[in-house]
Amino acid sequence: MAKTIFAQNPEKYIPALAEALKSIPEFEVPEWAMYVKSGPSRERPPMSEDFWFTRAASILRQLYIRGVVGVGKLRTRYGSRKDRGGKPDKFFKSGGKIIRVILQQAEAAGLVEKISRMQHGRRLTQAGRDFLDSIDEGYDSEIKSDDWVITRAPVKDMQEVEEEKEVEIVDENSDEKTEKDKEEVKDKSEEKEE
How many angstroms separate the Cα of 48 from the Cα of each of 100, 101, 127, 153, 183? Predict the structure, then answer.
């Protein structure tokens, strides 16, 4: 796996990938997509016009990150809690039809292939990896190496180090006094006498 996808901000990368997917003829929004919910935990169908392409971009990104992934894992990934009124909330998986059709469209476009050897599911082809690596919109230019690399560690002066050595910890409950404390008491008593 290339390191480029991990260095990109998903909030910027996924919309950029969705725009790129609109130019691929295999990715078409089905007629029924405007009328179905994305899962049983949702109250209404998605209101965004670009939902299909955004979800497709997110699924392709998950395939890139996780390797071989099936519809069941993606249903769990896109599931959410359902508000059941007075009863406690419960997690429900997302619907599988949308995910399955998006994976079939990606397979027809040559971005994804089926795996049925040791693992079952789908993974990105080399063409799919190259396509995802070609999108450079999500790089965060605001982050600089100076933000997380320590260039200079603060160094204490020699005087501070010597002062720390002179300070001794005295137990408040003990009656023993150090020589420094005895000298301070002597100085105070002499000041009172004068």
Answer: 20, 18, 29, 49, 79
Residue that the structure tokens 């420094």 belong to: 180
Query: Which of the 8 DSSP states describes residue 162?
Result: H
What pTM, to 2 d.p., does this model score?
A: 0.67
Single-letter residue type at 24: I
CA distance 178 to 75: 71
- In the 8-state DSSP scheme, what is residue 95? P
Q: How far, CA to CA in Å, does 123 sit from each of 13, 20, 34, 160?
A: 20, 19, 27, 60
C-alpha 180: how far from chain center:
56
Antiparallel, parallel or unpaired: β 112-116 and 80-82: unpaired
Structure tokens at 54: 């955004």
High-pLDDT (> 70) share of the chain, %: 71
| Structure token pair of residue 52 | 């299909």
Q: 105-157 pLDDT, tens per residue?
A: 999 999 999 988 888 889 999 999 888 888 876 555 555 545 555 555 555 56
Question: How many Cβ atoms from other residues are within 10 Å of residue 73's Cβ?
Answer: 15
Rg (CA), the chain: 32
**Domains of the chain from N-terminus onward:** 5-142 (1.10.10.10), 158-193 (no CATH)
